[in-house]
Design brief:
Blueprint lengths: L3 E6 L2 H9 L6 E6 L2 H10 L3 E5 L9 E3 L7 H19 L2 E4 L2 E4 L4 E4 L2 E4 L2 H11 L7 H7 L11 H17 L5 E4 L2 E4 L1
Parallel strand pairs: 1-2, 1-3, 3-4
Antiparallel strand pairs: 5-6, 6-7, 7-8, 9-10
Length: about 190
């Protein structure tokens, strides 16, 4: 995991407290007191959380600490929770072709259009997108549906058919999942 950067924005008293106990924390603590410095720091960092004592609308990954005093252990717990939320949200999206697949909300998005998907549909798209070659029906049965490959079932074909139809109806895209003689593929 990358270093967690804690940016203290216009809140010098908190910075001095955290700086004193900084060796005990697993954060890189940075103090900024103006918007330009903040923008510069944010543009150079991947994993960051901005703490301030009031809400600033134009700041992402922000934690507002407006109720003080607070127990230092409670504060550190809240900071860790915020970093976990940021990590969770950043891992929730994946790009497949021109689409964004939101794994948390189970949606497929492009150009302000969105399509709600089932968990199996998300799992199917995710599995197909990770393969560079067509994936056989037997492999999808085993890996996505956890069926034994010797079972006679048309579950995969039916689900793929319905998924392709949903994508066609919403995005007018008939080429997202293509059918090959040896399986299915996302190009």
């Amino acid at each position: 995991m990358s270093i967690q950067n804690l940016i203290i924005y216009k809140f010098s008293s908190l910075y001095h407290i955290l700086e004193e106990i900084g060796l005990e924390l697993n954060f890189n603590i940075i103090f900024v007191d103006n918007e330009n410095s903040l923008n510069e720091q944010v543009s150079n960092l991947n994993n960051y959380l901005v703490i301030s004592n009031k809400n600033h609308l134009d700041i992402t990954h922000q934690f507002v600490l407006n109720k003080t005093p607070i127990n230092i252990f409670k504060l550190i717990e809240k900071i860790n929770i915020e970093f976990l939320k940021i990590q969770f949200n950043s891992q929730s999206e994946m790009k497949v072709n021109n689409y964004i697949i939101d794994l948390n909300s189970r949606e497929m998005l492009i150009n302000n259009k969105k399509l709600k998907l089932t968990e199996k549909e998300i799992n199917t798209i995710t599995y197909l997108s990770k393969s560079n070659k067509p994936v056989s029906i037997d492999e999808l049965q085993e890996k996505v549906w956890s069926y034994q490959s010797d079972m006679e079932t048309h579950t995969v074909e039916t689900h793929i058919y319905r998924l392709r139809k949903k994508i066609l109806n919403t995005f007018n895209d008939n080429e997202f999942i293509i059918s090959k003689k040896n399986g299915y593929q996302i190009k």
